[in-house]
């Protein structure tokens, strides 16, 4: 995958996550820009999802599950170590933190 394709796919994923999280979580502060999505909960815990261009990965930093790196695979983002899906992991972590089900695709 070339750099332009990676950046387009990563940005599309981050934008979709931002929109879904904003719609689902009234008391979260959602900031998206420059390849970084930051979700700050009312209790000040933060989730950071960012595009890592050098490795062509999306990285997740979660107060629930820790840090993960995701590679593009067949239209999804899969954990580089275990194959877990980024959207599913982030949704599960947000639900664990807030009690609210967030659908991320």
Description:
The chain is of the alpha+beta class. The chain has one domain: 2-Layer Sandwich (Metal Transport, Frataxin, Chain A), CATH 3.30.920. The protein is built from 2 helices and 6 strands. A 6-stranded antiparallel beta sheet has the order 1-2-3-4-5-6, covered by helices on one side. Strand 3 and strand 4 form a beta hairpin.
Give the structure's gist in a few sentences.
With 105 residues, the protein is of the alpha+beta class. It has 2 helices and 6 strands, in the order H-E-E-E-E-E-E-H.
What is the highest CATH level, the class?
A: Alpha Beta
Termini, distance in Å? 22 Å
**Spans of at least 5 consecutive residues with low confidence:** none
Major sheet summary line: 6 strands, antiparallel
Q: What is the fold-level CATH name, i.e. the topology?
A: Metal Transport, Frataxin, Chain A
> Helix content range of the residues, please?
25-40%
Shape: globular
Name the CATH superfamily classification. Frataxin/CyaY
* Mean pLDDT value: 95
Give the radius of gyration: 13 Å
- The overall number of domains is 1
- The CATH architecture category equals 2-Layer Sandwich
Percent range for β-strand residues: 25-35%
* Class from helix and strand fractions: alpha+beta
Please count the helical segments.
2
- The order of strands across the largest sheet is 1-2-3-4-5-6
Number of strands: 6
Order of helix and strand elements from N to C terminus: HEEEEEEH
